[in-house]
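Table 4 source record.
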Amino acid sequence: MYEAPNLINITESKALYDTYEIDTLKELLRECENRYGDHIAFRFRNKPHDQTESKTYREFALDVNSFGSALLELGLAGTHIAIIGENRYEWIVSYFATVNGVGVAVPLDKALPQNEIENLLERGEIDVLIYSDGVENTVKGLAAGNTRLKTLICMNPEQEPDKPGFYSFRKLLKRGRELINKGYNEYKEMAVDPDIMKILLFTSGTSADSKAVMLSHRNICADILGLGGIVYFPPGKSVLSILPLSHTFENTTGMLFPLYLGMTIAICDGL
């Protein structure tokens, strides 16, 4: 039997669905762990022909808190941290760990030419660069000429940098897990001000120089809650992330909002 589609009239400004309140992405992470703990949060492959891996909401929360704890131990509190690379699980962990207690997250488009990335690093006052090996040559060139950039972290598990200032994501994640197992809770219990800038996004700059957009936790959460009032999917439903996470539209609608609902995000290879 044919059922008419549920059309959404957004002009009426009426919420169709109940939402739970959040003011920060730290609250979002905590709510997700409590509400959807053993549900699958992410499915992904590290390489195109690898077996598909998955992470539950509980595992994701632990990874975020572990990585954030390790970054604090490195003395990176209050820094501006750029994240550049293809869509991947480590990108998402890095983003959440940064905004939920370490510093300001600055997502960058991996497709930009080196001179434009260099310009954005300077404009964003970047102290730390988290990158994938797909942009490794670009990063090496940037590191050689940027005196402010003190710390580089590679997201690829097979990369184990041993130079001063270079770190492995995997090793930092392991170190953070060790800290938590020893009772370290500074990062996990750190309060987050919902109204100060924690995300710095650069527009695409297709018609002019890219513009810097300063966002707070409350800004982002308002978008999530507004969307939640008119769009609903039950926990466990799958969504495919098909745009770069460095773009604010995909960041909110393809990552944060599905997490809010308890959905499973399939990370598209190569973006």
